[in-house]
Design brief:
It contains nine helices and twelve strands. The chain is an alpha+beta fold. The chain has two domains: 3-186, Aminopeptidase (3-Layer(aba) Sandwich); 195-277, no CATH class. The strands form two sheets. A seven-stranded mixed beta sheet has the order 1-2-3-4-5-7-6, sandwiched between helices. Helix 8 (233-239) crosses helix 9 (241-260). The chain starts with a helix and ends in a 6-residue tail after the last strand. 37% of the residues are buried.
Length: 283
């Protein structure tokens, strides 16, 4: 067993699941039902269909499931990207509410990493909502993936139970599967961002939070920038959709502009701060 396979087996064991490829029709139907229950999409725009999963699997793409005994509690779907043979695009992953908090998502991603590396790929890419702090922490800190591009309203209108009609801004992540940071993260040695430590070294707040939780624009002039996001945007969308949209615009204008100008996200503080190295700024 190589290192990446050992890491994914260790993660799956810790989560109390077995992660494996999914190819049979009944199992693919279960993946569809799982995602449908998580996203609660409009009937004309499901995240996947059973027929699509069947075709993706047959064509050699990535469809996996996490099983607690016979029960499917998580799944992940990806397809081959460009350049051919080197990149896997991870399209959608989800975990049943009954299995949240058990690190099933981590086990799924480590299985995906092993699957890709076994096929000679060096990179997995995927998108996530930059306002969702827990996903930023998971992707950037726990997995060691790094943002590459800010994509405004990438999927257009999505009126499912998660996106809630908000603009679908996304960050495109690239996961360099063999990098030292990713190897450490997958072995349980993540490198978390520390906004307070960065501030003490002279970091500039490019987007902060008011005492009432509203976005407060700062300055993009600095070698290291700190960009805040809401502590819980999903709760905010439900309680105050207007405030959630204010955050969407503010993060797009600040973080999106920084990335477009050559800055790089180098970390995420779990308290809700992106740490950004500003190649165009001055320290």
């Amino acid at each position: 067993m190589n290192d990446q396979e050992s890491a994914h087996v260790t993660a799956a064991t810790a989560a109390g699941v077995v992660v494996r490829d999914v190819t049979e029709m009944a199992e693919l139907e279960a993946v569809y039902r799982l995602f449908d229950g998580i996203w609660r999409p409009s009937p004309d725009n499901p995240p996947v269909t059973t027929a699509m999963l069947r075709a993706l699997s047959k064509a050699g793409n990535y469809v996996s499931g996490a099983y607690d005994g016979p029960a499917l509690v998580g799944a992940c779907v990806g397809f081959l990207g460009a350049p051919a043979g080197r990149v896997l695009h991870s399209h959608v992953a989800g975990v049943a509410s009954s299995a949240l908090g058990r690190h099933v998502g981590f086990a799924l991603k480590l299985h995906q990493r092993a699957w890709a590396m076994d096929r000679g790929m060096g990179e997995v890419e995927w998108t996530f909502d930059p306002l969702v702090a827990r996903n930023a922490h998971f992707n950037i800190t726990k997995l060691g993936a790094l943002p590459a591009e800010y994509l405004a309203n990438f999927y257009g209108d999505m009126t499912d139970g998660i996106n809630g009609g908000d603009d679908t801004d996304r960050i495109l992540l690239r996961w360099d599967l063999g990098s030292a940071a990713v190897v450490d993260a997958c072995a349980g040695r993540p490198r978390p961002g520390d906004a307070e430590a960065e501030r003490s070294r002279g970091a500039v707040v490019a987007l902060g939070r008011s005492p009432h939780g509203a976005p407060v624009p700062g300055s993009l002039e600095g070698g290291t920038l700190l960009v805040a996001v809401p502590r819980d945007v999903e709760a905010l969308r439900a309680a105050d959709p207007g405030a959630a949209k204010e955050w969407r615009v503010a993060v797009r204008e600040v973080l999106g502009a920084a990335l477009a100008g050559g800055a790089r996200v180098t970390g995420f503080d779990r308290a809700g701060w992106y740490v950004v190295t500003n190649g165009e700024g001055t320290s």
